[in-house]
Structures
1.
Amino acid sequence: MNYRLLIPAILICMFSCKSQYDKLSDQQLIEGYVSGLNSAEFSEVDRYVSDSIVSKEFDFLLSDNIEAYSILFLWDSVFEPHYTIVEMKETELGVQMTLSKECKRIRFLNDSPILSKVNVSISNNEITEIQIYEHQNLDFSIWDARRDTLVSWIDSNHPELSGFVYDQTIEGGQDYLTAIELCERIPRSSTSGLASTIKVNNQSMIPRSLLRGESIVSKQTLTILMSHT
């Protein structure tokens, strides 16, 4: 075999594939990113984002590097989320989109998917910042009542899971999901109003995460955010 010919051929193929990836439009980049979110495989997200990826909810910093962001991803993946781009447009500030999200946690606390307005910044064909700047169809009082009632019931009946709402690691996510499943199994007659409190109505809402400490953050960041509760 003529290795002198083989090596240049491999290099040409590598650069050709990279060049093809680099030609992705901002819209294609974001669509690939959202598809990666739905795959539950972080490698499918990592390829579209910068190593210094910043994620924010309003003005609160959730992560500022790929490692911290991966922790958020793994926590979120426990609830088997599905994201849908409802609308997307390019602006002077970046790409703005309306993003719909549903998952087991949202179905329990919210009944229906939540809608968020998100601004995405892109540089050198990589997503560098993701900021949620608006939530739509909110009813914080209902979301908070459902979550707080769940937390209270778990503290009283399954103390081994206490604190699940503040642990945004994959283990914390698993405890959160277990808490939901335990609550869903109990008969209405034995909950002292728990079921009726949790299922108040079918209005669409979203968590007041950063105002109540239920932010999607690593343990290191959580302590800082709790000062805002």
Note: Residues 14-20, 200-229 have pLDDT under 50 and may be disordered.
2.
Amino acid sequence: MKRFAVLVLFPLLYAAAGLCQNNAADPYKATMDRLNSLTHQTESEWRFHDDVPHPEEPGLNDSEWGTLTVKNVSGPGGQHANEEHWTGTRVFRRSIQIPEKINGYATHGARVWLDLRFGSPSSLMITVFSNGAVLYRGDDDNILPVLLTESAQPGQRFLVAARVVAGDTVQSEFFHSELTIDAPKSRPDPARLRLELLASRPIIAAYEDGSVNCRRLSKRLISLRSTRGIKRLLMRHSNRHMPNWKF
């Protein structure tokens, strides 16, 4: 019960600092973005080629392939005018190495996912490989992040390939490529904290602007916009006390 109280109280306190201010801009967007950045890493640089047999083979020479920079835009696929488009079938490859940290948050022991998104006005058939194994085969409407590893080790490498099959006249795009991590149970979870902060907004909105309670809460929460403040808050949200946890 005490742990539940801590999990609820701190998001409420923190959100109050922003919502009590009469400001059209989101006053704590920077902190939300910072928490999100601890569990996400863009993997934007890919090599591409027209369809080839077995693009997942490690011995395949892709040094002469073209290069593509994925812009990581949001929204439904097939509607991004600024993305590079192609027609027909195309294959993509790159090597992904697990970093020691993502913006200061240690990856050791985390579950790691790769989120790839392709789009087109018509249906695409996609196959995603990692180190030769098929992780996904299906259409672009149903693709979800694929699991690279259950327990990350910094320095691990994955040769990822994707085949995107489309008609010869169909315009297609590759608009999102990102690593995401799930913190292990033994570590504070930035993603969980961020969700709790977001969920607390409707409750905090009930505070009257400029109330004494809001002013008191704001004074307590000023330091939480810094990395040190986030570390403290993450520690309080951990499942148990861990004096030597890695950030």
Note: The chain has a mean pLDDT of 79.
